[in-house]
Amino acid sequence: MSRAMLLFLIILSLNGISSQDEKGQDLKVEVLLKPENCPELSAVGDRLHIHYTGKLEDGTLFDNSLIREPLVVELGRKQVIPGLEQGLLDMCVGEKRKLSIPPNLGYGKRGFPPSIPGDSVLLFETELVTLVKSTYWKKVMDNVIPIACLLLVPGLLCLIGYYLYLKANVPKICKRKFKEKKSKAKNK
User: Fold this and answer.
1) Which residue range is the domain that position 162 belongs to?
2) pLDDT digits (tens, 9 = 90+) for 82-97
3) Are 122 and 34 in the same domain?
4) Which of 9, 21, 24, 43 is the 20 to 30 A CA-CA neighbour of 84?
């Protein structure tokens, strides 16, 4: 058997092992309550007001928004862990979901000490209280303003540099020579 074929078989077997290890790494979404009337679904760019209860797999409560104001999240802004953000997509106002978030979509190997140990599966029960849809112009502005700011700073620096360059290249006239030129102009 050639070395290339042996290497190919080793890589193939390693791919099979790694894909088996990652099988339990998907977000699980269970709809607990879905309203009959659902005119709008949440999408990236929308602002959501949610209540949630966060627990570990053993039932230990680590966070709860029910004792305070709802959490305000703008989807797509990475304001919450990826699993929670993905679990909030396509929700209706009044909908309740149970999310099982694997470590790779939560806090990963490091966790969030002291309340969340590393490699923890997180269980969230969420309820969408309010949905504020993103408008077309808001989406445009969210994309245009950062680009404009990136272009504005170098543009201003270029203008300042050009102004200083012009100012440095203007011939300097001393006052005495200026008075002499003025008096010659009057005499003519």
Assistant:
1) 140-185
2) 999 999 999 999 999 9
3) yes
4) 21
In a domain, 16, yes or no: no
107 is catalytic: yes
Q: Is 147 assigned a catalytic role?
A: no
- Catalytic: which of 62, 112, 119, 142? 62
Same domain, residue pair 153 and 116: no
Task: Respond yes or no: is residue 162 known to be catalytic.
Answer: no
Lowest model confidence (mean pLDDT) among 13-17, 157-161, 182-186 = 13-17
Active site residue 62: yes
**From the candidates 46, 50, 101, 107, which is the catalytic residue?**
107
Q: Which of 46, 50, 116, 124 is catalytic?
A: 124
- Based on the residue annotation, tell me whether 81 is a catalytic residue of this protein: yes
Is 163 among the residues known to form the active site? no
Largest CA distance in the chain: 106
Query: Where a domain ends, among 132, 149, 168?
Result: 132
Q: How many CB atoms lie within 10 A of CB 38?
A: 13
Digit-coded pLDDT (tens) for 43-74 = 988 999 999 999 999 999 999 999 999 999 99
* pLDDT value at 12 more than 60: no
The residues, ordered by sequence, that sit 6+ positions from 90 with a Cβ below 8 Å of its Cβ are 41, 42, 43
Assess contact for 97 and 29: CB atoms under 8 A. yes
pLDDT tens-digit readout, 124-137: 999 999 999 887 78
